[in-house]
Write a structure and sequence with these properties.
The complex is a heterodimer of chains A (698) and B (562). Chain A has 698 residues and is α+β, with helices and mostly antiparallel strands. Among the domains of chain A are: 116 residues, ATPase, nucleotide binding domain (Nucleotidyltransferase, domain 5, 2-Layer Sandwich); 133 residues, Dna Topoisomerase Vi A Subunit, Chain: A, domain 2, CATH 3.40.1360; 89 residues, no CATH class; 106 residues, no CATH class. In chain A, helix 1 runs parallel beside helix 8, helix 11 packs across helix 13 and helix 12 packs across helix 13. Chain A starts with a strand and ends with a strand. Chain A is built from 17 helices and 35 strands. Chain B is an alpha+beta fold. Chain B folds into 3 domains: 215 residues, no CATH class; 167 residues, no CATH class; 44 residues, no CATH class. Chain B is 30% helix and 22% strand. Chain B has 15 helices and 21 strands. In chain B, strand 9 and strand 10 form a beta hairpin. Classes of the chains: A alpha+beta (698), B alpha+beta (562). Chains A and B meet through helix 3, helix 7 and helix 13 of A and helix 1, helix 6, helix 7, helix 8 and helix 12 of B.
Chain lengths: 698, 562
C-alpha cells in the first residue's frame, strides 16, 4: 500500500497526517516542534507515524510539508547578510518605497526597514527602458570590481533588481553569470526570476526577501531530505506554497519566498476541501486560535488568491506597515482576536478587546499561571461556553472564580456592571470585531458575506462561530470533525503546481502575438520540465491568464486565456472575458476604451490528489434521521435571548452518529474545542460527523 | 443607553462606514481614489452631525466633510428630502476648498422618514478650467462650480446636471464613473444602516448619536483639561508666489478648550493658493488631533472643544471668488504651524516642521513613439520633521497621506525617463534627532519636441525650521541642464527638448541640539551616507577619521565643547 504524509510545523506542535492513495485511510501524529532544527521533529513524527501504522518508509510515495521557519527568519532578521544591486541612481528606491504612512494619526510610527541597509546597496551603470531597449550597456569590468567589494563587505547573499528587467533581463542575467563565475559562494536572486513584474519597489523588496532566506532554505531542506532518506522515506519531498499549490524542493530552495504563508494557506485549503466534499463550495473559513482569528473567502471550492502580501509589519494588524512581497498568496485577513485576547478599558472609558494577547504564558486568568488581565477565554468560561473541568478534553482545569473576579474588578467595576454582564460585553465585542473584519474583507473583494456558510475551526472558532454567523446573517455554520489537524490535512489536498509570470505591457488591439506565444510557451516548457520529474506528461495541465486593464487604469483583472496558439482572433474572446469579469466586479463596462495586457501568466499543475474526509474509526451504524443525540448532562449557558443563564444540554461530540438532528441552545464538547449553539440553530450530523448548523435569522 | 449596548452599536456604525468606503474605492475608476486614497466617507444623523467616519483618506477631506452637512441641510431641510434623492456640491467654501473635490450626500429613509445621511468626498480627475494648478486669478478659471444641488431626485438622475458636468470636464468617463462609485458607496452604507436599525430595533440613530457625541466630546475635553493652560505662538514662513507667506499661529489652551487663531498671517494673493476657512480648520484640527488625541474617534463631539479662527483678510480665510486650486500649497503647512506653537507645552507630542507640502509635477508634451499629446502627473514627498524621540521619516508624505509612484510606472505611461531617485545626503535638519531626508529625482523627456513643465513646489526658499533646538532641513531646488533654461515653480513653463530637470525635495527639520546626538549615531549616519563627513563635523561636532571611519573621540569632545 502506498501512502502520503503531510507535515505542518507549527510554533508549538508539528502535526502529521498520513493518507493512503485511495484517500480513505488516515493516521494522525503530533510531536513537539524542535525550533532549533525543525527537521528533527518532522523525522521523529514520521518515524512514529510509520511505526503506529506498521508501515515501512518505502511505502511513502511522497511527503508534503510546510513551515513558518522562513517567516520567522524574516521577522527576527536572522537571515543572511544581504546586499542589493540596482541600476545607477536607484539604490534608494527600496527605502523610499511608497512614501506613505500606515497610520494617519500616529506621529511615532516607523516605516519598514529594508533587508539590505544603505551601505550594502550598490549601483551599476546600465539602463534598460520601458520598451526593453538598452539606453546604456552593462560593463563587465564594473561588475567584477563590484563583486570584489561585495566580498570585502562580508556579504553572504545578493539580490539584483535592475529597472525594467521584467521586460529585458539581459543585464540582470549577465550579473547573475558573473556572480556565479566570480563568487559562487554567494546566494544570488535575480528579480527577473523571482517576480518578473512592473514596479521596482515591490520587485526589489520581494527579491531581497527571497535571497535573504535562501541559504537557510537550502540547508534546511537538504537536512530534511537526508533525515527522510535515513528513514527509508525516499519518495519526493514537496513543499507547500503560500498560494495553495505545492512545489519541489529544488524550487523551494531557489524561491523560498513562495513558502512564507504556507501554514495558514493549508488551513484554508482544508476548509475548501471539506466544503467540496460536503457539497458546500462557498464558505467563509473562520479559524480562531489563541491570539488571532483568520478569515478567508472560499468560492466555488477554492480560496481567493491575492497577488501580494506583507511580511514583518511594524504593526502586525496594520496594512501597509510591512515589506511588500509580490507572490501569490491565499487571500486571508488576520485580526487580533483570539481566546487569549485581553479585555481592557481604554482612554475613553470604552471596553476594548485585543489585539494584545495573554499568549501561552501567563495565559488567561483562568489558567492559574499568573495571568491577571481578563481575556476572551475568561469571559467564555464565565458565560458557561467552556466547562472548567473539560478544557482540552479534561487535560486542564480552569478557575472560573478567578476569571469572574478579574472581569468584575477590571472591566465590570469601571463600567458599573457585574461579572456576567461584563463577560457578555467582552464576548459580544470580540464577535463584533471579527464580524466587522469579515464584512469589510468580503466587500473589498466584491462579495456579500451573508451568502457564505461559516466554516469554524481552531480552538476558539467553534465557541464563537454561532454568534459571529448571527451578526453576519450567514445561513449556515459548519463545524468539521478533526479541526485540530486541519492544516496538515490541507497539505494533502493540494496538487503539485507552479506558477509563472512575464510582464509585457502592450495594447490588446494591436498585440505582438508572436511574442506573447513565445512567452507563454517558455513558461509552459519551464513548468513541464519541473513537473515531469514526478508527474506523467499526460497528467500535466496548464492554465493561462492575462492581467488586463482599461488603458491608463492602475490595476489589473486576471482573465483566463484560451489554450493553443494565440493570434489576432484571440483578442475578441479575451476582451469579452475581461468585460464580463469587469462588469461582475464594477457593475458596468467601458466599451469605448482600449485594453492593455500587462502580464501573461501560466499555472502548470499535476492532478488533484484523492482525499476523502477523515472518518471515525468506529463506523456509525444504525443511525436514523430521527436519532436524538446522547446528552452527557446539562449546564448553565448565558443566553442573551433570555437575558441570563439557561440550562442547556451538553452533548459528547464523539457519541454523535450520522443523521442525528438536534436544535440549539446546546453545547457540544470535543477534545480540541467546544461548539456553542444558540437557540436559532437546527443541527444535522453528516456522514463525516461534521455538524451542519442551519441558522434561522427570523 | 447602557454602556455596552452603546459600544456594540458604535462599533457596528464604524464598520458600516468602512464598508461604505471599501465599496467606493473598489468601484472607483481612478487611481487617485483607489491607490492614493484621496477620499473620505462618513455617516451623519438627522441633524447633520457626523457620527462616524471611515479609516481612510487625507485630512483635508476628512475634517472638512465633517462640517459640510449643515450647508446641505440649509439648502434642503431634512423634511423636504425624499427617498432616492442624492445631493452634490464642490463648493470650495462649503467642502474641501477645491473644485476637484466633489462631495456626494445620500439621505437614508426608513419608511418615509429620513434617519440619517451618508456622505463622501472624492478627488475628481478633472473639473475643467485650467486643470489642477495655481495659475488662476479667480475661482471662475478653475473649472465647473457645482452649488449644493440634487444629483438624483426620487431615484432618477437629474440628467441636465450630469450632461453639464460631462460637457465641462476633460475626462467625462472617469469623472462620471467616480460619481457613480460615490453613489454606490453611500447606497452600500444605507443598506447596512437599515439592517442595523432593524436588528437592534431602533427607530433612528438620534439617541445613539447623542451618546457618541457626548462621550467623544467629554473624552476630548478631559484630554485638553489635562494640558497646562496657556497661549503659545509660532510663525512659519513659506515661499508663496511672488512674496513669502507668513503663517502666524496662536494656540490657546484654556480649561477644556483649544482655540487656534491665525490673526496676523499674510493676506490673500491673486493666485490659486488661497485657503478657505473650512480647509484651514480641517488641517488645524488634524494637527491638534495628532498631538492631543490620536486615539479619540473623529466625530462632531471630538471637534467641538476646538475652535479655529482666521480673519477674512488673511490667506487662511479666503473669500469668494479667490482662486483656491492649489490651496494645499499653504494648507499642508498648518499642522506644522500648530506643532510649532505646541512644542513649548507638549514637546514630546509633536513633529518638527518638514517638507510638508506635497510636490505635484505635471508634464505635458508629445509622445515620440505615437506623436500623440501626453499629460502625466505624479506626487512626491520630501522629508518629514524629526520627532522628540526619533528621527524624522525620509521621503514620506506628511500631513497628506498620498503615495508616490514607481519610476517604472512613470516610464511605462509616459515618455519621461527618470535617471535617478535617491535620498539627498545632508538634507535632514541636524538635531539630537535628525529630520527626514528629502529625495532627488533627475529626469528627461524622450524625443526631440519641447514640453511644458508645471511643478507645484514649496520650500525652495524657506527651509523647514528645526524645533526645540534642532536645525532646519535643506531647502528644495529645481535644477536644469543646461542651466540656461529657467523653470520657476508653480507656473506652466515651456522647456526645450533635451533639457534635464532635477527636483531636489526639501528635508525635514531636526529636534534638539545636534551636538547632543550620540557620536556613534552620527557615525552610523555617515556609514549609511545619510550625513557626509563634513556635515558630521560642521553640524554635529563629530570628527570622523575618513580612513578608518571611526569617531576621533578627543577631537570630537574638543569640538563639541567649543
Amino acid at each position: 500500500m502506498a501512502v502520503r504524509i503531510g507535515a505542518d510545523i507549527g510554533g508549538t506542535f508539528t502535526d502529521l497526517v498520513l493518507v493512503d492513495d485511495g484517500g480513505d485511510r488516515f493516521g494522525f501524529g503530533k510531536v513537539l516542534t524542535t525550533p532549533d532544527a525543525p527537521d528533527r521533529a518532522v523525522e521523529a513524527g514520521v518515524a512514529e507515524l510509520l511505526h503506529d501504522e506498521n508501515l515501512d518508509g518505502s511505502a511513502v510515495s511522497h511527503v508534503v510539508h510546510g513551515t513558518t521557519l522562513f517567516t520567522n527568519a524574516l521577522i527576527e532578521r536572522k537571515g543572511a547578510r544581504t546586499a542589493l544591486i540596482t541600476t545607477a541612481g536607484f539604490r534608494d528606491a527600496i527605502e523610499i518605497g511608497r512614501e506613505h504612512r500606515a497610520d494617519m494619526y500616529d506621529l511615532g510610527m516607523a516605516r519598514p526597514v529594508p533587508l539590505a541597509p544603505r551601505h550594502l546597496r550598490f549601483e551599476v551603470s546600465e539602463r534598460v527602458l520601458a520598451d526593453g531597449s538598452i539606453l546604456q550597456s552593462l560593463d563587465d569590468a564594473e561588475v567584477i570590481e563590484l563583486i570584489a567589494k561585495l566580498r570585502a563587505a562580508g556579504v553572504q547573499a545578493v539580490a539584483v533588481c535592475l529597472l525594467h528587467s521584467y521586460r529585458n533581463p539581459v543585464h540582470e542575467r549577465r550579473i547573475g553569470t558573473l556572480l556565479q563565475d566570480h563568487a559562487p559562494e554567494l546566494a544570488c536572486s535575480l528579480s527577473c526570476d523571482v517576480v518578473p513584474e512592473l514596479r521596482e519597489y515591490d520587485r526589489s523588496s520581494t527579491t531581497l526577501a527571497n535571497v535573504y532566506v535562501q541559504h537557510l532554505a537550502e540547508r534546511y531542506l537538504g537536512r530534511l531530505r537526508q533525515r527522510l532518506d535515513a528513514r527509508s522515506v525516499t519518495g519526493p519531498l514537496y513543499v507547500m506554497q503560500s498560494n495553495g499549490g505545492v512545489c519541489t524542493v529544488d524550487t523551494a530552495a531557489r524561491l523560498p519566498i513562495r513558502l512564507i504563508e504556507s501554514g495558514p494557506a493549508a488551513g484554508a485549503l482544508a476548509a475548501a476541501h471539506y466544503g467540496r466534499l460536503i457539497g458546500c463550495s462557498d464558505l467563509l473559513s473562520f479559524d480562531m486560535g489563541g491570539t488571532t482569528a483568520k478569515l478567508c473567502v472560499i468560492e466555488g471550492g477554492a480560496p481567493l488568491i491575492a497577488p501580494a502580501f506583507e511580511v514583518d509589519r511594524q504593526d502586525r494588524f496594520k496594512k501597509g506597515s510591512g515589506l511588500p512581497v509580490k507572490v501569490p498568496v491565499i487571500d486571508m485577513i488576520e485580526i487580533g482576536a483570539g481566546g487569549g485576547s485581553l479585555a481592557r478599558i481604554d482612554g475613553l472609558g470604552r471596553l476594548t478587546v485585543g489585539p494584545e494577547s495573554a499568549g501561552a504564558t501567563p495565559g488567561p486568568v483562568c489558567y492559574g499561571r499568573g495571568g491577571t488581565e481578563p481575556s476572551v477565554t475568561d469571559a467564555d468560561l464565565v458565560l458557561g461556553c467552556l466547562d472548567p473541568r473539560f478544557f482540552l478534553g479534561g487535560r486542564m482545569h480552569l478557575d472560573r472564580e478567578a476569571a469572574a473576579a478579574a472581569i468584575a474588578e477590571r472591566i465590570g467595576r469601571p463600567l458599573g456592571l457585574d461579572a456576567v454582564a461584563a463577560a457578555w460585553g467582552i464576548h459580544q465585542l470580540v464577535n463584533e470585531n471579527m464580524a466587522s473584519a469579515a464584512r469589510i474583507h468580503a466587500v473589498e473583494r466584491g462579495r456579500e458575506v451573508g451568502r457564505f456558510a461559516l466554516f469554524a475551526f481552531g480552538g476558539a472558532g467553534p465557541v464563537h462561530a454561532y454568534r459571529v454567523a448571527k451578526i453576519l446573517r450567514c445561513p449556515r455554520v459548519v463545524y468539521p470533525l478533526g479541526a485540530g489537524v486541519m492544516s496538515a490535512v490541507g497539505f494533502l489536498t493540494a496538487p503539485l503546481a507552479l506558477d509563472f509570470v512575464r510582464s509585457r505591457p502592450d495594447h490588446l488591439e494591436a498585440l505582438d502575438w508572436d511574442t506573447a506565444n513565445t512567452l507563454i510557451a517558455a513558461m509552459e516548457d519551464e513548468g513541464r520540465a519541473v513537473l515531469r520529474r514526478t508527474v506523467p506528461d499526460a497528467q500535466i495541465g496548464f492554465r493561462r491568464f492575462a492581467d488586463l486593464r482599461y488603458r491608463r487604469q492602475g490595476f489589473e483583472l486576471r482573465t483566463s486565456v484560451p489554450a493553443g496558439r494565440l493570434g489576432a482572433d484571440a483578442a475578441g474572446p479575451i476582451r469579452a472575458a475581461f468585460e464580463r469579469q469587469y462588469a461582475a466586479v464594477y457593475g458596468h463596462t467601458l466599451p469605448d476604451l482600449g485594453i492593455d495586457v500587462v502580464n501573461w501568466r501560466v499555472i502548470a499543475e499535476g492532478p488533484v490528489p484523492n482525499l476523502k474526509l477523515p472518518t471515525p474509526t468506529t463506523s456509525a451504524t444504525g443511525a436514523s434521521d430521527s436519532a436524538e443525540p446522547a446528552t452527557k448532562g446539562h449546564r448553565a449557558l448565558y443566553l442573551p435571548e433570555v437575558g441570563g443563564f439557561a440550562e442547556v444540554p451538553v452533548i459528547d461530540r464523539y457519541s454523535l452518529t450520522p443523521g442525528t438532528r438536534f436544535s440549539g441552545p446546546a453545547v457540544v464538547e470535543e477534545r480540541e474545542s467546544t461548539v456553542v449553539l444558540g437557540p436559532a440553530a437546527r443541527v444535522t450530523v453528516d456522514e463525516g460527523l461534521n455538524l451542519l448548523a442551519d441558522l434561522d435569522h427570523g | 443607553m447602557d454602556q455596552l449596548t452603546l459600544e456594540v452599536l458604535w462599533n457596528r456604525l464604524v464598520s458600516v462606514v468602512n464598508e461604505q468606503a471599501a465599496a467606493l474605492m473598489r468601484t472607483s475608476f481612478t487611481s487617485i481614489v483607489r491607490e492614493a486614497g484621496d477620499l473620505s466617507a462618513g455617516v451623519f444623523d438627522r441633524r447633520g452631525r457626523m457620527i462616524a467616519q471611515a479609516v481612510t483618506g487625507t485630512p483635508g477631506h476628512i475634517n472638512s466633510m465633517a462640517t459640510c452637512m449643515g450647508h446641505f441641510l440649509t439648502r434642503y431641510p431634512v423634511d423636504s428630502l425624499r427617498p432616492g434623492d442624492v445631493l452634490i456640491t464642490n463648493d470650495p467654501w462649503k467642502t474641501a476648498s477645491q473644485l476637484n473635490d466633489i462631495t456626494v450626500v445620500t439621505p437614508v429613509f426608513r419608511g418615509a422618514r429620513c434617519v440619517g445621511f451618508f456622505g463622501n468626498c472624492c478627488h475628481a480627475l478633472d473639473i475643467g478650467g485650467r486643470g489642477l494648478s495655481a495659475d488662476s486669478r479667480e475661482v471662475f478659471e478653475e473649472g465647473l462650480f457645482i452649488p449644493v444641488m440634487k444629483l438624483y431626485e426620487a431615484g432618477q438622475p437629474v440628467q441636465p446636471v450630469l450632461d453639464l458636468l460631462a460637457a465641462n470636464v476633460r475626462t467625462p468617463d472617469e469623472v462620471l464613473g467616480d460619481l457613480h462609485s460615490q453613489i454606490v458607496g453611500n447606497a452600500v452604507g444605507a443598506k447596512q444602516l437599515l439592517a442595523f436599525l432593524e436588528e437592534f430595533g431602533l427607530e433612528d440613530i438620534e439617541a445613539l448619536s447623542d451618546s457618541i457625541v457626548a462621550r467623544s466630546e467629554r473624552a476630548m475635553r478631559d484630554r485638553i483639561a489635562a494640558l497646562p493652560d496657556g497661549t503659545h505662538s509660532y510663525a512659519l514662513t513659506v515661499d508663496g508666489f511672488d512674496a513669502p507667506i507668513r503663517i502666524e499661529t496662536r494656540v490657546t489652551i484654556a480649561g477644556d478648550t483649544i482655540t487656534v487663531d491665525y490673526t496676523g498671517s499674510s493676506g490673500p494673493v491673486p493666485r490659486g493658493i488661497n485657503v478657505t476657512l473650512n480647509y484651514t480648520t480641517a488641517y488645524t484640527t488634524y494637527g491638534i488631533k495628532c498631538a492631543v488625541s490620536p486615539d479619540i474617534p473623529n466625530n462632531e463631539g471630538s471637534f467641538r472643544p476646538v475652535t479655529v479662527t482666521a480673519p477674512p483678510d488673511t490667506i487662511l480665510n479666503a473669500q469668494f471668488p479667490a482662486a483656491v486650486g492649489g490651496r494645499h500649497l499653504v494648507g499642508h503647512f498648518l499642522p506644522s504651524a500648530v506643532f510649532g506653537a505646541l512644542a513649548e507645552a507638549l514637546p514630546d507630542r509633536v513633529l518638527a516642521p518638514g517638507a510638508d507640502g506635497l510636490w505635484d509635477t505635471q508634464i505635458f508634451g508629445e509622445d515620440p513613439d505615437t506623436g500623440e499629446r501626453f499629460t502625466y502627473v505624479w506626487f512626491a514627498s520630501g522629508g518629514a520633521g524629526a520627532r522628540a524621540d526619533q528621527d524624522g521619516l525620509s521621503a514620506t508624505a506628511f500631513p497628506s497621506g498620498i503615495a508616490g509612484v514607481p519610476a517604472e510606472v512613470i516610464e511605462t505611461l509616459s515618455p519621461i525617463v527618470l535617471h535617478s531617485r535617491e535620498l539627498r545626503q545632508d538634507s535632514g535638519g541636524p538635531g539630537r534627532f535628525r529630520g527626514g531626508l528629502g529625495q532627488s529625482m533627475r529626469l528627461t523627456v524622450r524625443g526631440d519636441r519641447p514640453f511644458v513643465f508645471s511643478g507645484l513646489y514649496e520650500r525652495l526658499r524657506h527651509p523647514a525650521p528645526g524645533l526645540l533646538g534642532g536645525r532646519p532641513g535643506a531647502t528644495g531646488a529645481l535644477r536644469t541642464r543646461p542651466d540656461t533654461v529657467v523653470i520657476p515653480p508653480k507656473l506652466r513653463t515651456p522647456v526645450p527638448a533635451g533639457t534635464e530637470v532635477t527636483l531636489d525635495l526639501p528635508g525635514g527639520g531636526g529636534t534638539g541640539d545636534p551636538r547632543t546626538r550620540p557620536a556613534e549615531t552620527v557615525l552610523e549616519d555617515v556609514h549609511q551616507g545619510y550625513v557626509s563627513l563634513e556635515a558630521a563635523k560642521r553640524d554635529y561636532g563629530v570628527v570622523i577619521d575618513p580612513e578608518t571611519l571611526t569617531v576621533r573621540a578627543d577631537a570630537t569632545a574638543a569640538l563639541r565643547r567649543a
